[in-house]
Amino acid sequence: MNALGAVDLGLALLVLAIAGWTIAAREAFAAIVGYVAYGLLLSIVWARLFAVDVAMTEAAIGGGVTGVLLISAAARLRQAQTAEDERPTLPLRLMAAALSALAAIALGAVILSLPEPGPSLAPLAAKNLAATGVGNPITAVLIAFRSFDTLLEKVVLLLAIIGVWSLAPDRYWGGAPIAPRAARPVGALTFLAQLVAPIGVVVGVHMVWVGADEPGGAFQGGAILAAMWMIVMMARLSEAPPVGAPWLRAALVAGPAVFLIAGASGAVTSGAFFALPQAFAKPLILIIEAFMTLSIAVTLPMLVAGPPRRAPL
Amino acid sequence: MPGFATTTGGVLLILAILLPVAGLTASLALGGRRAEWIALTLAPVGVLIALAIATNVLASGAPVVYIVGGFAPPLGIALRADGFSAIMLLTTAAIISAACFFARSGFATPKGEPEARAPFTFWTLIQGLFAALNIVFLSGDLFNLFVALELLTFAAVPIVCLDGRPETLVAALRYLLFALFGSVFYLLGVGLIYGAYGTLDILLLAARVKPEPAVYAAAGLMTAGLLAKTALFPLYLWLPPAHANAPAAGSAVLSALVVKAPFFLLVRLWFDVLPKLPSETAMALLAALGSAAILVGSVLALRQQRLKLLIAYSTVAQIGYLFLMFPLALGGGAWSMDAWIGGVMQTLSHAFAKAGMFMAAGLAAQSLGHDRIKDLGGLGRAMPMTVFALGIGGLSLMGLPPSGGFAAKWLLLTASAEAGQWVWVAVILAGGLLAGGYVYRILAPALSGEPAALNSAPARSREAIALALTLVALLLGFAPQSFFSLIEIGRLPVVGP
């Protein structure tokens, strides 16, 4: 076994160990920390499988944003906790464990039965790459071949925001959420936010820009921009905007709206909704990605900030 | 090759999806009363589009196809409308429109406020539901269908807890957990299928699928996930509190349409993706679960004290009938077309009957200030139109002639008898008797006694909407021949035993 093989084996064992620890942890916070570590390790696994785009998304969404969401949810639960600890009985837990183990073994066996190498659409996607004007086949799949899916996933995010807001008391409607943040300004956190945020914004924008030809894109770049806004809010350098603010609504829908307009224009110029005219394909894709990035960068922090918790001014 | 190029009228398919998506986006941006106006304008436009699609399918006698983005599968995504899709689109557009007009008085933005929580949420999410349902009925791609299921979940769950009482939050959370569990199982199955065949397109898969371990595992996972979402016994626990706690217009859409979407996908999966899989045992199991749902759901409905919960448990039972169609229609016997039409007819007649009944129950609860069944005395004299709607809807649930429910249950009954599968005959007959029992429990007190004292008189227009929907369920019993020609279009030839 060469050195890389040993690293892979170690990585696999570590992923399994952290997964087990996350399930076994009795404290919500401990479980979430385990889960975030699990996400980051998984992103290294993806990188080792040469799926760099997936690795970046896993790190940004699976490890980062989901982690923040879970931690703020756990913090809110702790305030409301009645400390009742209903542990299922031992036979029930044993049965659940046996069932899970059985399902895992069956799934593993099925996955080993799949053809090797697996049938793949990658050659077909590569062959059609020229029609899209971009160099990164993942971006081509997301914004050209299966752009319909990508648009609809953005709409899922809009529905999620509406769902979170709908949990507010009626009197706070139109008011602002309170993002999870330090109880009072903390010097170190303020300094960190002032230092990291400008760099992070540049990195995020860069990631979107190179995403056309290299690994990266709207999801990953938007998630980094979102993280920067979250850090700034956590350090109390900025407040979450009121949910009725026109600019906020505009920013939330900008990505889907531009995507829809570009998709409809394809029906006029190229004969099919979501078709891209060959000559303008690349600039169009970049414009769509830019507005999608904006929407993602605004949607994720607003999801973390939660429902409005202040009366409108 | 048919199915891989856009046909005439194909553009209607993408319009049916993109109009509600655009409406939702614009409603979120503009907010307030404009959200209501957008929803009220686009829903009837959706009816026109659905009618045009049905006309096109009927005229061409073959599925209408649209290739999104000009990239044909396996690289891109195809939308396809067969007869079942077309009739479901039409049903969805009609019931969503009815629900929108029914909801106007309950979800008006108060004067002097730019926007309020419940109206904003309702008018945006109902458009999200409309879009999601249309994708479910049109998409020809298994992953695209997963995104549709996610849209459906995130639009449906907040409607359950729209009025914010603690018990509605508990119901919504339970619904969310079941729905997400279902999504994960479905997605796992889709992943296995892609790993085995390198495509997600339903038509391509139908040609490539072979009976092998990965396919069996995927079929099991996807079926389990979809069963949780459609609330088939024993995974129904989330449904009654969720459907009983939502506002009436929401309950109507959830019970009539949202639980039908995963059922529709189960039909797609077993009839269109996996017709080559030997499935006798699996189909018998589905029908057995359906039978259990009919009996358990009906008995529980008989025991309820509240009107909305009774109607919700009746949904659990009526969903059961849908699954009797699987072993009968998939077998390739002479009776399979009867069973198919019976299953489709049950889907439609339950949708219209249940939508109308939930609206009627909402009106009764609003006017009486409660929905306790034992205190419904005199309702028939005070709100005759509403009680009439409950009665007509009940007729279809029981399967009495002349109604869509009768046609559905009669076709399933004769198909079972022809197939020699007598156990389903017994279940259908028992289910009809039990349904008669729980409908009687509503009507007996409602039709007796002096006129009940009402807190507020119901709006005539809202009573009329509820009654009109149940009348559609009744009229389905008189469906013309073109209706039957339509729902047979595009069924892949089933491989005989």
Automatic annotation (TrEMBL), chain A:
<feature type="transmembrane region" description="Helical">
    <location>
        <begin position="124"/>
        <end position="145"/>
    </location>
</feature>
<keyword id="KW-1003">Cell membrane</keyword>
<feature type="transmembrane region" description="Helical">
    <location>
        <begin position="90"/>
        <end position="112"/>
    </location>
</feature>
<feature type="transmembrane region" description="Helical">
    <location>
        <begin position="59"/>
        <end position="78"/>
    </location>
</feature>
<keyword id="KW-1133">Transmembrane helix</keyword>
<feature type="transmembrane region" description="Helical">
    <location>
        <begin position="280"/>
        <end position="304"/>
    </location>
</feature>
<keyword id="KW-0812">Transmembrane</keyword>
<dbReference type="Pfam" id="PF13244">
    <property type="entry name" value="MbhD"/>
</dbReference>
<protein>
    <submittedName>
        <fullName>Sodium:proton antiporter</fullName>
    </submittedName>
</protein>
<feature type="transmembrane region" description="Helical">
    <location>
        <begin position="250"/>
        <end position="274"/>
    </location>
</feature>
<dbReference type="InterPro" id="IPR025383">
    <property type="entry name" value="MrpA_C/MbhD"/>
</dbReference>
<dbReference type="GO" id="GO:0005886">
    <property type="term" value="C:plasma membrane"/>
</dbReference>
<dbReference type="InterPro" id="IPR050622">
    <property type="entry name" value="CPA3_antiporter_subunitB"/>
</dbReference>
<feature type="transmembrane region" description="Helical">
    <location>
        <begin position="151"/>
        <end position="168"/>
    </location>
</feature>
<comment type="similarity">
    <text>Belongs to the CPA3 antiporters (TC 2.A.63) subunit B family.</text>
</comment>
<keyword id="KW-0472">Membrane</keyword>
<feature type="transmembrane region" description="Helical">
    <location>
        <begin position="189"/>
        <end position="212"/>
    </location>
</feature>
<feature type="transmembrane region" description="Helical">
    <location>
        <begin position="29"/>
        <end position="47"/>
    </location>
</feature>
<feature type="transmembrane region" description="Helical">
    <location>
        <begin position="218"/>
        <end position="238"/>
    </location>
</feature>
<dbReference type="InterPro" id="IPR007182">
    <property type="entry name" value="MnhB"/>
</dbReference>
<dbReference type="Pfam" id="PF04039">
    <property type="entry name" value="MnhB"/>
</dbReference>
<feature type="domain" description="MrpA C-terminal/MbhD">
    <location>
        <begin position="13"/>
        <end position="78"/>
    </location>
</feature>
From TrEMBL, chain B:
<feature type="transmembrane region" description="Helical">
    <location>
        <begin position="251"/>
        <end position="271"/>
    </location>
</feature>
<feature type="transmembrane region" description="Helical">
    <location>
        <begin position="86"/>
        <end position="107"/>
    </location>
</feature>
<keyword id="KW-1133">Transmembrane helix</keyword>
<keyword id="KW-1003">Cell membrane</keyword>
<protein>
    <submittedName>
        <fullName>NADH-quinone oxidoreductase subunit J</fullName>
    </submittedName>
</protein>
<feature type="transmembrane region" description="Helical">
    <location>
        <begin position="12"/>
        <end position="30"/>
    </location>
</feature>
<dbReference type="InterPro" id="IPR003918">
    <property type="entry name" value="NADH_UbQ_OxRdtase"/>
</dbReference>
<keyword id="KW-0472">Membrane</keyword>
<feature type="transmembrane region" description="Helical">
    <location>
        <begin position="351"/>
        <end position="370"/>
    </location>
</feature>
<feature type="transmembrane region" description="Helical">
    <location>
        <begin position="37"/>
        <end position="66"/>
    </location>
</feature>
<feature type="transmembrane region" description="Helical">
    <location>
        <begin position="143"/>
        <end position="163"/>
    </location>
</feature>
<feature type="transmembrane region" description="Helical">
    <location>
        <begin position="283"/>
        <end position="302"/>
    </location>
</feature>
<dbReference type="InterPro" id="IPR050586">
    <property type="entry name" value="CPA3_Na-H_Antiporter_D"/>
</dbReference>
<feature type="transmembrane region" description="Helical">
    <location>
        <begin position="175"/>
        <end position="194"/>
    </location>
</feature>
<feature type="transmembrane region" description="Helical">
    <location>
        <begin position="421"/>
        <end position="443"/>
    </location>
</feature>
<dbReference type="Pfam" id="PF00361">
    <property type="entry name" value="Proton_antipo_M"/>
</dbReference>
<dbReference type="GO" id="GO:0008137">
    <property type="term" value="F:NADH dehydrogenase (ubiquinone) activity"/>
</dbReference>
<feature type="domain" description="NADH:quinone oxidoreductase/Mrp antiporter transmembrane">
    <location>
        <begin position="139"/>
        <end position="430"/>
    </location>
</feature>
<comment type="similarity">
    <text>Belongs to the CPA3 antiporters (TC 2.A.63) subunit D family.</text>
</comment>
<feature type="transmembrane region" description="Helical">
    <location>
        <begin position="214"/>
        <end position="239"/>
    </location>
</feature>
<keyword id="KW-0812">Transmembrane</keyword>
<dbReference type="GO" id="GO:0005886">
    <property type="term" value="C:plasma membrane"/>
</dbReference>
